[in-house]
Amino acid sequence: MSTDSDIFRRSERTPQAFAEVFDRHATSVESFLRRRLGPDAAEDALSETFLIAFRRRDSFDRAWDSARPWLLGIATRVAARHRATEARHWRAITASMGGEHTTEGGIDEAGVRMDAAAAIAALAPRIAALSARDRETLLLLAWGGLSHEEIAQALGVPVGTVWSRLNRVRRKLAPPGSQLTRLTWIGKELEDGRLGAGA
């Protein structure tokens, strides 16, 4: 089976070969976009993501076998543009109504729609309060299913930056001393084999 790098090389001579990349990754990219934008906007964003990927396929790092992190990086930027457009529309609607139907922070809340399970819904206000960079990093991990190295590739940052952002997210989403923080760190210590048998 060909790697995505092989397909990108073939697509230089035969552009139709790029359809294989779409077939392999469209489902995961669409799932990621649905969670970020909702079902209506996800379809348009998916098309835009793959159009950009096709046009920029020569910029894909051929050292990577899978294009999934690269595609999710593009999808992250497309989703950000869609949310910014939505926020502009909300501001225009609000202005045309003379502000009669606004709520405090309504534009920011409209720009950050979370269509997720009940546990995530409870965290939505705190996730929305994260910086855009931290939120993108978290969502690529949680919804995109990317490794730390793949997130770094998708966002064009060092792996250490990904670790720092996720550590900051962990602290912001789980207040110090909370059960969630303790369980997270115990889980990390267990993964690393640092927690003794007496714990």
From TrEMBL:
What SUPFAM superfamilies does the database record attribute to this sequence? Answer: Sigma2 domain of RNA polymerase sigma factors (SSF88946), Sigma3 and sigma4 domains of RNA polymerase sigma factors (SSF88659)
Task: Check the record and name the Pfam families matching this protein.
Answer: Sigma70_r2, Sigma70_r4_2
- Domain RNA polymerase sigma factor 70 region 4 type, residue spans: 127-173
Q: Which Gene3D superfamilies match?
A: 1.10.1740.10, Winged helix-like DNA-binding domain superfamily/Winged helix DNA-binding domain
Question: Which positions fall inside the RNA polymerase sigma-70 region domain?
Answer: 22-88
Q: Which keywords describe this protein according to UniProt? A: Sigma factor, Transcription, Transcription regulation
Q: Which GO terms describe its molecular function?
A: DNA binding; sigma factor activity
What is one GO biological process annotated to this record? DNA-templated transcription initiation
Q: Which PANTHER family match?
A: RNA POLYMERASE ECF-TYPE SIGMA FACTO, RNA POLYMERASE SIGMA FACTOR RFAY-RELATED
Q: What family is reported?
A: Belongs to the sigma-70 factor family. ECF subfamily.
What is the name listed in the Swiss-Prot or TrEMBL entry for this protein?
RNA polymerase sigma factor (Sigma-70 family)
Organism listed in the record:
Microbacterium natoriense
Phylogenetic placement of the source organism: Bacteria, Bacillati, Actinomycetota, Actinomycetes, Micrococcales
